[in-house]
Write a structure and sequence with these properties.
The structure is a single chain. The protein is built from seven helices and six strands; from the N terminus they run βαβαβαβαβαβαα. Strands 3-2-1-4-5-6 form a six-stranded parallel β-sheet, with helices on both faces. It is globular.
């Protein structure tokens, strides 16, 4: 039985899908958790579902691609529960589905801001605090799309590949300070973000046929 009592976790994109499942798992293990999402109504809905955990869960709206919002997120988490010693960079976006040469720079910028710039900024800020408080853990949620090219999801693939390398660099640089930096690369998980893949029966069937388990994953399988 693993306990996270006394830990203060910040989970981005923590109001649904993988992020919500991880936040709930952390709470069940005894941690205090701050969740965030771009929309306040999403935060409120998630907090209502987690109400059984009382004052150990806190949430606020924020965009991980914006510096001011990131500073506000970290400050709010610290004011609520103390120094953040567990950071989960889960927030992600994939606004464009199609050939990469037909994409526009707006789709590129939006994807990179959320999927790569946000984790870089948040990890940097939290790591500085972890260094002075005895260490911590940073977990980045990447994707198998970052390990092999994913046709029609080129920008997303590039952003997730960058997140894998960011993990490797920070792990090497921060390990001596007692800060572990790790990356999870899920396959297809049934979330709103991946709906374009599993909502199409023909496409889903094609994907499932290549899976060893003969099915796509569910968010709760990422918790452990």
């Amino acid at each position: 039985m693993h306990t996270l009592e006394g830990k203060n976790a910040l989970v981005t994109g923590g109001t649904r899908g993988i992020g919500f499942a991880i936040a709930q798992g952390f709470l069940e293990a005894g941690a205090s958790v701050t969740i965030c999402s771009r929309k306040q109504e999403s935060v409120d809905a998630a907090l209502a579902k987690l109400s059984e955990f009382g004052d150990r869960v806190h949430g606020l709206a924020g965009h991980v691609g914006k510096v001011d919002d990131i500073d506000r997120l970290v400050t709010a988490a610290e004011e609520q529960f103390g120094v953040v010693n567990v950071l989960v960079n889960n927030a992600g976006t994939n606004p464009y589905f199609g050939p990469i040469i037909d994409s526009d720079v707006a789709a590129w910028d939006k994807t990179m801001d959320v999927n790569l710039r946000g984790p870089y900024l948040l990890s940097s800020r939290c790591a500085r605090r972890m260094q002075s408080s005895g260490g911590g853990s940073i977990v980045n949620i990447s994707s198998i799309a970052g390990l092999a090219s994913s046709p029609m999801q080129g920008i997303y693939s590039v952003s997730k590949a960058g997140l894998i390398m960011l993990t490797r660099v920070m792990a090497r640089e921060l390990g001596a300070a007692g800060i572990r930096v790790n990356c999870i690369c899920p396959g297809l998980i049934k979330t709103q973000l991946s709906e374009a893949l599993w909502a199409n029966p023909e496409l889903e069937s094609s994907i499932v046929s290549m899976k060893a388990l003969g099915r796509i994953g569910s968010p709760d399988e990422l918790v452990g």
